[in-house]
Structure formats: C-alpha cells, structure tokens
C-alpha cells in the first residue's frame, strides 16, 4: 500500500521511492500530448503535438515551444501553467547569466540550472513538484546542436533525440531503431531531421497529421551571426502541411533511410 | 477513492491529478452564471449573465465586467470576492507595466501574468486556489481585438470566442457551430457579434432574456485615439432591451447567418 | 459527509464549496440579532436590534452601529469581537485614504476594501474567517445615499435596503414586498424610511418593541456642509419610543403605503 | 459530536460555534473564584474572592486586583498566569497612550483595546485563547465611575455591576434583583456599594466570610486631583472584617434597601 | 478520555483544562527530588534533596540551588536541562534590570518575569512547557526575607515556606502544621529555620539523612552591605552533617517548638 | 510496525532508529549503479558504472564524476538531481574556502563540510534527506591520495577503497579480500589500481564490460604543479576499452596479485 | 500505550515523560560503542572503543575524540553526523568565549553551554534531538582535571569517571566498584588511570583488545605552559598495544589495586 508515503513530498517510501515525483510524471502523460526534438547536422528540429482543446481557441496562442534567448528554445510538455512558470524562470536565469558574464548562457548549463529548480520541489515541503517536462534545444556556438531534457525529478541529460509526453515510450522506441548511426543523426540535414520527426509523430498519433496539429521549431546555424550561435525558426502550419504532403508522396522515410545506408557504408569503410 | 489526495493543494493524486483545481472549477460553475466574449472585426463584445441575488440589491453594484485599463476589461465568472481580488491585482500589474515601460500592457501579456498568479495557488501550500475564471478582452493597438481566458489552474489562451460558468459547455458548443468562418468571426461587425452573444446567452438561459439580466461591454477601435488602442463601452439595460426586441423581430440570427453565407461564398472564391 | 472538507479553510469540497464560510454565516445568525438599513431620499436609516444580554450592562455601551468617518457609519451584526476588529480596520483604511488623497473615502470603495479583508481569511491558512456582517451606509457627496453590505465570504454589493442576522430572510422578504417602487424607496423621506425600518423590525421580533430594544442611526444630507457629504445622527431610546408610539397610533405603514400608491400613479403617468 | 471542531481554534463548527472560546470560559470557572465590581455614585467598589491555595503562601502576594494606571484598576478572574500577562499588556497600552496623547487613557478605550487582544487569540492559529476574564474599573474624569468587562471571546461592555467566575450566574441574579433603580446604583454611596458587594459575595460563598477571604479595591473621586480622575484604595483585611461585622450587626442590606425605597419614591415623583 | 486534548499545548479540553501543564507537573515529580525553602527572621533557608544519580559523578557538580544575583538564589526542582535554561534567563533578566535601572531587581519582580516566561510556553505552539519548578529566595533590602515560587503553569506567589518535588504535598502538610505562628516563622532565627528544613526533609526522605544528601543555601542580612541586601551562603556537606548530628542529639525540633510556644505566649499577650 | 515512525524525519523510533535515513540508502541502491574509488601510490582511481538509461541520450552528458576543484573530484551515486545539488554546494564551499584562506580546501575537510550538509537534512523538518552518496577523491598536497565517502546520514570517513550503490556489499567484499597489504594498496601504481577497479566492477556487473559502460577518473601527482596538488584525468571510452582488452589478455589480476605477493614478501622482511 | 505521545518532541506524556529523549538514548546505545573517561591525579585518560565498520576504511579517519581547544577534548559516543555537528558548535563557542573574554573557556562552562544546545532540541518543534553523548575533558588551569558529560536530554554533570554507549551500565558498575577512594582516583597517576580504562574496556568488550580497537587521549598538566592549562596527547595504536601487553603481563590491575590499598591505609590514618 503506497497510501502512507505518497501524501508528503518530503519523505521516502520504505523502498526509497519518491511517489510524488512519479505522480508528476503521470500528470505530464495525462495531458495527452507528445513532443520530439532531434539533433541533426548543424540543426535541431523540435516538434510538438498541438491540441487546441477547444475550436474557439486561437491556435496561435496555444504554444508548447518558447524562445528563452534568441538562440535557445524550450519545448514544454505537461501542465500549461507549470510550463509557463518554468519558461519565465529560464528566461530570467538566461538573462541574468548574460548580464553577469557578458556572453550567452550555454544551453547545457541552463538545463542544469532548471533541473536544480525542479529538484528543489522534490526535496522541500513548500509545494508540489512541477508537472511538466522541459526540452531545451539550441545550436550552440561551441557545442553545436544541443538537446537537453529536464524532468520533474531534477534529472537532466543531453540527447540525440528527446521525446516527452503520452507516447514517449513508443516514440523513443521508434527513434532508437531509426537513428542507428554512431553519431545518431549528426549527419542529418534539416530536411532529414524534420522528416524523421514528422514520421515519429505520425507514429505516435493514430489519425492523419495536419499542419495545424503540430508546432515545429528549427534551430540552425546562423551564417549572419559572427559568434556561431544558431537562430530559431518556427514553421507555419502551411509549410508543415506542404512538408507532410511531400513526405507522403516521396514515400515517407525512404530517402532518409537510403542516405543513412550510404552513410553506414561510408562509415564502415 | 479521492479522499486522501484532495485535501491538500500541494500533492498530486496517483493519476497525476490536482483535485483542488478541479474543485475550484466546480466552485465557478456553482455560482450559476454564464458569460461570453466574442471577437469581431475591430471589436470584442462581452456579455455576462447578471443575477441580482436579491431584489433589494442595487443592480448597478452587481458587476462582472471590470475595466483594468482604459483599453482592457476583464469579464469575471465565479466567487465574487476572489474575482475582485484578481481584478485589483490585474490593475496593479497593468499600472506597474505602464509606469515601467511607458506603454500600455498588451492584453495577452497581462493574461499571462494573471495566469501565473492563479498557477501559484495550485503549487504552494499558502492557501486555496482562486474560484474564479477571468476573460480579459481589449482592442489592442498591435494585435487588434483580443480575448484571453485565464482559469484557476493557471491555463491561459487566446480565443475567438470564450465562455465561462455554469453553461460553459453548451454555450461553447453553440458558438463552435455558429462561428464556422475561417477567421471565426473576424469579419463580424459589432452588431453581428452582439447578436451572436445575445443568441448564445438566450440559449444558455431558459427564461426570456431582459436587459437587466445581462451586463454588456463592447470594446471597439477608438478613432480619436492615435495609438490604435480601443475604447470600452458598457451598454445600459435599456439599450440591451432594445437590442433584444430588435433581434427577436428581425428573426434572430438570420441576418448574420445570411451575411456569413455570403462571406463563405466570397471566401471560397 | 462534510466532515473531511470543513476543517480547513483553505480547501474546496468536491462540490466547490467553502464550508467554513458557510459556518461563519451560521455564527452571525446564532448571535440572535437582526439589523436593517434602508435608503430613502437623501437619507439612510439604519436600525439594529439591541439585546443587552444582561440587565447589569450599561445599555449605552452595547453598540452595533459605529461611525467610521463623520459621514460613514457601519452597522455590524455578528460576533462582537470580530465586529470591533473590522470597525478598527475600516477606520484605519478610511483615515489613510483621506490622508493620501485629501478627500473622504467613498463608501462604496471602503466596502470593497473591507470585502477584500474578509475574502483574505477565506483563502489563506492564517486563521478563521470573520463571523460578522458589515453594512456601511452614508450620504455620499457624489453618489447620494448609499448602503453597502460586506459578508464573511468577501461578497459586497450596494443595496436599496440591506438586512443581516437571524431574521435576515424574513425581513428581506417583507422589504422586497413593501419597497415596490422603481427606485425602491428613493423618494422616501426620513420619516418614511424610519417607519419602514421599525415596521420591519417589529415583524422580525415577536415581542412588542421598545426604544431600548433598538439602535437607530440616520444619515442625512448636511446643509451646513459645503462638499455635499451627509451627517450621522443617533436617536435616543426616548425618541425611538415616541416614534414607535406615533407609528402605532397612526396605523402603522398606512401613510407610507398611501404615499407610495400616489407615487406609483405619478410614476405610471 | 464536538470532537472534530474543538481541537483547532481557527475553525467554526457547523453550527457557527467556536468551541475553544467556550472552553476558555470553563477554564475561568474552574478556578473556583468569584468577583464583583459595582458602580456607585462617584465610586466603584470591586471585590474578589481570595483563596490562598496553600496556608504557607503569603496572603499579600495573592492578588486579583491590579492597578493599571493610578486611576484604573483591573479585577482579574481566571488562570493566574494569563491574568498577569494581560495586566502587563494593559499597563503597556495605557502607558503608550499617555505618552502619545499626553492624557490618561479612558477606561472604556482601554477595555476595547484589551478585548482586541483576546479576540486575536480566537481568530489566529498562534496559540490558545486567554483563560481569564478582566474587569476594568475607574472613576473617569469625563465619564465618571466606569466598570468594563472583557471576556476571552473579545466581548466587552460597560456594566452597572459586573461579576465573573464560578458563581457568576448566581451573583448576577442577586445583583439584578437588588439593583432596581433606574440608574442602577448610581446614587449609591461607597458604603452602600461596598455592603452590596459583600452581601453578594456572602451569597456566592457558603461559608462565613472573613477579611482574609476577600480583596477589596475602591475607586473614588479624588478631590485633590484637579483633572477629575479618581484614586484607588485597597482595603486591609482588618477593615474588611470590621465592615463585615458592622454589616451583620446592622442587619445586612436593610439600610441600603431602605434608602433605595426612599429613592424609589423620590424617583417616581 | 483525555487523549484528544492533551497532545497539543495550545488547546483547552472541554472542561477548560490544560493537560500539558498537568503533565509538566508530573515531570517535576518524577525527578524524585524534594526541596524546601523557609523564611525566618532576617533570613531564608533553602534545602534541596541532592541525589547524585551515579556514584562516579562529582557531587559538587550536581546543583539545584543557583545564584542569580549576589543577593538572589533560585532553588530548582525538575528536569535539569530545563532548570539550567530558566536559571540563565533569570540571570539575564536580573542583569538587564540592574543595567537599565541602576538598582538590583526585587526578587518578587524577578519571579513575576520568570512566571511570564513559563506562561508563554503554555499558550503558544512553539514548544513544550518547562518541566521544572523555581523557588526564588533572597533577603531583599526593602521587603526583607522573600520566598517566591514559580511553577510550569505560570503561577507565582510569595511563600512563608515553599516546597516542590515528589514529596511536595507531605512536606507542605508538615510545615503547615509546624509553622503556626501568625507571622509563620518570621521570628525564627537561621538556626530555627535550618532545623525546621532538615526536620521536614527528614520526613520526606525515609532513609537517614547525611550531609551529602542535601544542598543548603542560607540568605541572611549582610551587615557589611549598606543598601540592606542580604548575602548567600552555601553550607558544606560537613557542616550539614554536624547540624544533623547536633539536631538528633538535642532532640530534634524540641528547642524550636519550645521557643515557639514561648513566642505564642508572648504573642497572645 | 514501522509505520508510525517513518513518516517524519525528525523523530526517532522507539529503537532509536531514523527510518528516513535508511530509506534514503534504499533510494541510492535502487538507482542500479555501482561505483568504486581506490587509493594507490600517488594516485586515486575512481570508476563509476555508467548506465545510459536511454540509447538516445548523449553518453557524454551522463556523468557521475564531477570536478569540484582542479584537484578534487566527486564520485556521486544515487538520485541524479540530488547529486547535482550537492556537487554545486561542494563547489561553492571549496571556492569560498579558497577565497577566505588563500589555499585549496583539503579534501578531508570538504568531506566533513558536506557530511554536515547531509546530516542537517536528517535532523530538521525542512525537507527529506539526500538520496545520494558522495565519494570525494584527490591527491592532496599534504595528505597524498585521499578517498572520503559521505552518506545520507551524515557519516563520513577516509577509505583505502570506497564503493557505493547497488553492489556495494559485494564489491566491498571483493576489495577487502584483494587489498590485503598493510597499507592497503598504497604501493599500487595507477595501472594496478585501475585493473583492480575494473576487475571489481566486472564482478559487480554480470554482463561483459565495455568502455561505454564505465566512467573513469584518475587523480595523480601533478609534476608540473609546484604545490604538490594532483591533477584529474578522465579516460575516454576507447582507452577504457583498450585497458579492458589488455586486462583480459594478460589474465586479469594476475600481474597485480603477483606484485602484491612480492610486496608481501618484502613487507614481511 | 506510548504511541500517542512519542511522535512529537514537544509534548509530555501523561506520566511527564519525554519519549523522544529516551529514544535518543537508545540511538546512542545502538551504535555499539563504549567509551570511558577517568580523572586521575593531574590527568584525564579517555578511551573510546573504535570500530572501523569496514576494513577498507582508513582507521585514522574514524575518530571519536576531538580537540575543541588545545586544552579541551571531547569524547563523542553516538551518531557520527550528530557528534560532528556538536563538536563544530563546541569549537565555535570555545573560540567565541576566548575572543570575547581573552581567556580560555573553562571546560565546565563549555559543558553547560553544550547541554543548553541539546536541551533546546527537546523543547522546540524544529527538529529531533541529538543522538549523541558528549564527554568533555581537560586539565583546567584552576579546577584541575575535569570530566563533564552532556547527554541528549540536556543533563550535564562533572564526573570522576564517565562512561557512555552500549556497555555504559556495566562499565559504570565496574568503575564504581574499583574506584573506591574518597577522592575517586584523584591520586591515580596517568599509568593507573590508563590501566583502569583499558581494564574496564576489556570488561565491556568480550573479544581480546588490540591497539586498533581503541582510541586513547590523555590530558595532562603541561609544564611548559605557564597558565596551568593541560595538553592533550593521542596514543598511537602501537603504544596502546604495548600498554595492553604490559598490562596483561603485569597481571592486570594488581599494581593499581595494591597501590590503592596502600592509599586506603594511608587514608584511614
């Protein structure tokens, strides 16, 4: 019986479990959304399922990808209110870092700071943990394309491809299978990465995908930027639709898989 | 059994639910009021049911629509005391923003700040959540007519048409059905929007509507205002009555539906 | 079973109820007192039942009507200690307002501030709500005669005639029936209003009324006051007795009802 | 069953009761002491039963009447520790008032401040209420003889004659019966008032009274004091004994009752 | 059933009892020590049973009588840790008084301050009450020999002879019987008082007394001290032994009782 | 039944146990990782099992060994979020020490400070204990190679070889058996120590080890460093693989065991 | 049933017991260590059992005797983390005392301060009590050799010989029997005291003692120190071994007992 140990955040169960943290994960999954971010060559493609809960909502105001700095975006999956709070805190931390150090905050460091924020609420008795999962991504000036995930337990790591939400497990399985290269997609172009994302998302969602069902943000190298930081671009629903159509016509992942096999061959040489 | 997890705000249930937030929604519905705000072309029309609980109350002092700034109003549905507190906080935040930045606060940003306010009370142990739902509306200088809803969970979004209260579900269904245009009412005149609101409200309330049963506020472009912000106008009970009579005589929504079909035809060309 | 949700102020019950607020209302009713305030033409008449719990108490020191400013009075019904605390806070707020703005606080704004005070104790975990109901009244320089009621839930509104206490429901029913004019007593003279109050009070209290059973305060326009604010006058037990005798002799409400019918006729012309 | 609602100070029971306040009254009664203060013409006589719990206690150090200012005394009945704390607070408030305003604190205002002190502990969760009842008395320069009682609930009022403690009800009944004059003892001399007190106390205590069983303080007009404030005099056990003897010899209350009848006659003329 | 009301310090039981205060008294008694302080003519003699719980403890470091100022000592009975804390606080208060007022603190005032300290812990929720009983004694410059007892409830009083601890009731009974003079030992010399103490202690302890079983402190007038304050002297175990032997040889209390009878005779003349 | 005593951090069970501390240990073990640090001659070799929970995670971002200062590293085993928090605190303490004292913090002192940090959370009611075990290691300028372990209870000690995690008991048993020399490995070269670590890790993990399954950090004397502090080197997965292969080929621990026997012989001479 | 009263530190049980304090004592005993400190002539010898819980721990880092000042050491028995915290606090208090007063803190005063520290945690609700027992010892400049024990309840006293831990009762019994001299070992040389300690420890531990099983610290007069303070010397495992061997060979306590008999004879003369 877990009853006795899951009412308080600040205690371990006899098995060393923190039940409230597990329930926070459930809260994320119960939002019925899935999101994916994939690292390619000089790019990161992030896609979030976008479910406008009500057809009277203006779709543009339903967002799951937020810019933190001009170079870093955050893909949030979970309770909307909690996500917004964490996005505000991330912006504040990024701005303070820049003010204090004169340079942009590295995305990996930002992810660590935000993981500290979520860890705090698993240890102290002030309030409940955050019911949201953050995926920070950016094309960093030094480290190149970066994807860092932060979960409610305070866990964080860098990813080749990160997923969150209801279909996290299934999507991850698909990506693990598809992304077999040693560098796991590091040679993928924006196009490759985008197709992969869409394909994975199509797998997660049973109905036919449309541009309005998705939110896509692409971080790429910014050639006009001297310091090497990337830029962030959000795709319009129309562009996503075009991409989806094109993908279906061109036979889905074939192109990518072909190029991958070629790369595999080169690689094994 | 929910008993164990719904006594404390700061814990998740094993299914990842925050019961207190759901109960706060129930508190809103139990006030027995319905409210609607619809975005038209260069206008927003907001209507709240107005139930003077006691015939000895001076009807003018029963208000559900409050001005936050000269350009932004807030339509509150729920516990009166909680609404007033949030209206005061909204006014304070708007005034601080103006003082700090020299320009008016955008209504979308204000909605985000207030959603942060309600989210706070779902996470910390200080007190209960707010039992009220806020719908901010305004004709913004840059974004045009805007309707933003904030609920007790800290959720916020922009809406073509937002509803709250006891008959929220039914009213929303009616509006979804009626507002079929691609831009969802963006071409509607003030008259169109007002009729739509009244019609929707008539559907929500079984008895025959009268001017004293409603509170109506219309935000329109202000031609005398150089910076593009709109103005707010409250309709008198008499004007509402006239409108209702006229609407009944002219056959309800016919005019609007006709114009809509015409627009549909233009649109498909 | 309410048992589980009514022990803590800061939680909603599954039906969205705040039980402690309802119990606070019970606390008011259990004091066994009834009070009435009626708005007339250029006047407000407030009457409180006055039960000296013990014949050794000096009747003058048992008060339910307190002056907040020279123009505003507050009719308190409920736990004496709580009433006094709220009266002190009201005085403080009124004085601060005057100090800060250079003009007297409008009675409607004061009522809103005090409703915020009582709302606070329904949301935070610091202590129990106030077991008292406040009726602020005044002849305002701009808004004329005003009656504003504030209850333990933080609800406030303006009234034509407000009642509170044990017989609140019965008294309210009587007044609703009697006060049928469109402006609900706005044409009533001080005499009319006073008679109405006494009649209503006589209905609430089964035994024969005496001057010592009542506390009466009358706010009227002050002709000597340039800025339009009214003055407050407390009636002596002797004057109340005289009034009661006169009323009985003159056949109770007849005069008033007659004048009302005449006004009704004028009104319908 | 009261069990659930009487463990916390800060909640109402479903009937609107504050159980802890009622228990505090029980705490006062369980101290097994009775006290009386009677207002006469230009005087107040206060008598407290004085039970030295242990014959080894120095009787002078067992006190229930404390001077707050040179003009105001406080008759405390209840838990000794709580009484002392309240007496200290009263002294502090009186001293601050004098320092701030340059004049002595009126006894009625002091009683109101102290009632606020006891009310505080019925509303907030910091600690239990005070298990003591305070009777402030004084011959005030403006209001003349004054008796003000403050109880654990925060209730306060002025009294012709106030009683507290175990035999409060019986003593009050006796005094109500005896003090029938319109002004309720306002014409009584010090001697009359003192006899009345002693007689009432004799009724409350079954055994024969002795000087050492009582503590008597008399506030009278002070002719040497220009500003009209009275002075406080404590009677020695010997003087009380003499008074008791004299009273018994002179046939108890006869003299007073005779004089009262005479006054009644004058009064009815 | 007391179960429900005795777990929290800050609530009364339905009978108005504070159970924790009663348990604190039990804590004192369970230390298995008895102490006595007797006021004589120009002297106070204080004796504490001294049980060295372990024969390896250095007896000098087991103390129950502490000097607060050069003139005031405190005889502590109860939990050692609590006693020490209160002694430190008493020293601090005495030092601050002297610093602020330039004169020594009167022992009665110090006892009142310390009683406030113990009362505090019966009212607030910060922590448990003190499990110790304090007996302050001194030869005061103005009031002469003084014995003041402070208990965990915040009760304090002056005593002719005070006792505390396990055999408090029995010892008190012995002393009440023996100390029959009107002034209750005020004419007793140091020798008389000391014998009385030893005799009482002998009664409380069944085994034969030895010097090492007792701690004795004697406050006497200090002829070398101009301001009339007394001095404190601690007796060595050897001196106590001598006294005990002498007492047994001289037939116990005979001398004292004889002198008392003589005084009685004088007294009745 | 432990139920009653393990819900609160701040209480002992009747057997004097702190259950929450034991559960924190369970939390460490449930992370399914094992780690080892061994002290050699002028070196420390630390190895952590590295389980990339998800093949899409960038393995470089999964770290269990963190540098605290250029000379001190910390091997963390347990909840990732808790580890990171403690690493940040350790870095802060080390930096402050250096700033305040002008020299590097000794690793033993740092371990003591961090043990104080974890002890704090076993005594106060603010939050739960840390679910992580820290092993600090360094080649100190004065004390030479040092390994200090800090556990959630606040226990800390220096070790010849420390292990933590799921297979702590088994690994410790293996190391105790192997490290039999009086100085327990003090004569071991880096190579010896590394082999020993790998062998122990191989024993703990049933499957065949690979470079990517491990994280290895080696602290050695830094000849370029004048003040005697060591440096820290992290091995690449490739180097670990080479080492593993070489170890298997050379017959496991044979070389080390041989050298050890030789040393034993020398030693016994 | 103790269940109800032992979950909270801040309440007494109906018998006046503080259960948490008793459980803290159990926590000390459950550490399975025993320690002894004996006062000799101009010396104190302190011995702690030293159980290195793990053969991989560097024995030097397992310490139970800590220096507080150059003259005062503290022998800690109980939870290691709690001991360290108290040692840090003792060092801080000693340093502050010296800084403020210009002289070293007397060991008895330090023990009193630390007992206040442990008492605090038995009275307030902040956290659990300390699960450790402190024995401070020193050769003081004025008081000579001193041994002061502080337990979790806040009790402290000076000792001829103090013991703590699992075998406290047995060891104490042995020492009481052996140390029969009036001054209880005050004439014992360092050698005598050390032998006594070792013999007592041998009795407490069933297996044969070795130097590595013990930690020994000896405080002696420091002839090079002008102000009379002693110095502290820790014995190496080798020296302890030598002592043990010598002791066994010389027939255990014979020498000491012989000298004691001689002293007894002298003493009785």
From TrEMBL, chains A, B, C, D, E, F, G:
One GO term describing the cellular component: proteasome complex
This protein's name: Proteasome subunit alpha type
UniProt domain Proteasome alpha-type subunits: residue ranges: 5-27
Span of the signal peptide: none
Taxonomic classification: Eukaryota, Metamonada, Preaxostyla, Oxymonadida, Blattamonas
Pfam families: Proteasome (PF00227), Proteasome_A_N (PF10584)
Entry's family note: Belongs to the peptidase T1A family.
Highest taxon in the source lineage: Eukaryota
Gene3D superfamilies cross-referenced by the UniProt entry: Glutamine Phosphoribosylpyrophosphate, subunit 1, domain 1
Keywords assigned by UniProt, alphabetized: Cytoplasm, Nucleus, Proteasome
SMART domains: Proteasome_A_N
Subunit structure: The 26S proteasome consists of a 20S proteasome core and two 19S regulatory subunits.
Compartment list: Cytoplasm; Nucleus
